[in-house]
Amino acid sequence: MESALLTIPEGQKHKNCKPIQGVLNENGCLICTSHKTNDGEYPNVRRDGRLWDMHRYMFYKWNEEIPEGELIRHTCNNTHCINPEHLRRGTYQDNSDDMTRSDRQAQGSLCTSAKLHEGIVNYIRFFAEDSAKKLAEQFNVSIPTIYNIKNNKTWKHVHERYFYDRVA
Questions:
Q1: Residue-by-residue DSSP string for 15-49
Q2: CB atoms within 10 A of CB 26
Q3: Which of 100, 109, 138, 156 could form a disulfide with 117 if both were Cys (CB 3.0 to 4.6 A apart)?
Q4: For residue 109, pLDDT beyond 80
Q5: Structural domains in the chain?
């Protein structure tokens, strides 16, 4: 089913501005099609003398002021959605908790701070016979990091033994 293009009513104040348009997807997300995205993946809109991330503008327009230090969360987990019904105010911690609950956070080697990769973790967890101290030195991590890997407290997504041809 193809969605029709929707134009968001903004009233006389913004009649000379580029209209905000989008399509409604099967989850009720309103996906902006009228404005370009910025480097951070959100579409931008210029209104009231300032440049807004589109989802922040939509929340502000249909809900309330956004206190300094708060952000706008997507309850639908779709960062392209600008449907005011899918947007909520919150803190950075709320947003982080949302990501954890919905399993959207980067895992393993996709984390920018990762010192290891899945192949090394697989080796440590299933094949390494050296002491935790020796493994920690070999891979330049802490001894607790080795214990956490071995006890499946971290890198939980690495759960199958697979053959490795190179560790480092």
A1: TTSPPPEEEE-TTS-EEE-SS-B-TTS-BEEEETT
A2: 7
A3: 109
A4: no
A5: 5-101 (3.90.75.20), 106-168 (no CATH)
23: number of Cβ within 10 Å: 14
- Residue 29: name the closest of 80, 94, 100 by CA: 80
Q: How many Å apart are CA 72 and CA 94, to the nearest integer?
A: 10
Token digits for 32?
A: 């902006």
Q: Work out whether strand 30-32 and strand 21-24 pair parallel, antiparallel, or are unpaired.
A: antiparallel
Strand segments, DSSP code E, in 17-141 are 21-24, 30-32, 44-47, 50-53, 71-74, 87-90
φ, ψ of residue 18 to 5 degrees: the values are: -60, 125
Terminal Cα distance for the chain, rounded? 49
Task: Indicate the pTM of the whole model.
Answer: 0.58
Encode pLDDT of 9-54 as tens digits: 776 666 778 888 889 898 889 988 888 877 667 888 888 888 888 9
Q: Is residue 16 within 8 Å of 10, Cβ to Cβ? A: no
- The phi and psi torsions of 106 (rounded to 5 degrees) equal -65, 140
> Can you read off the two tokens belonging to residue 34?
């009228």
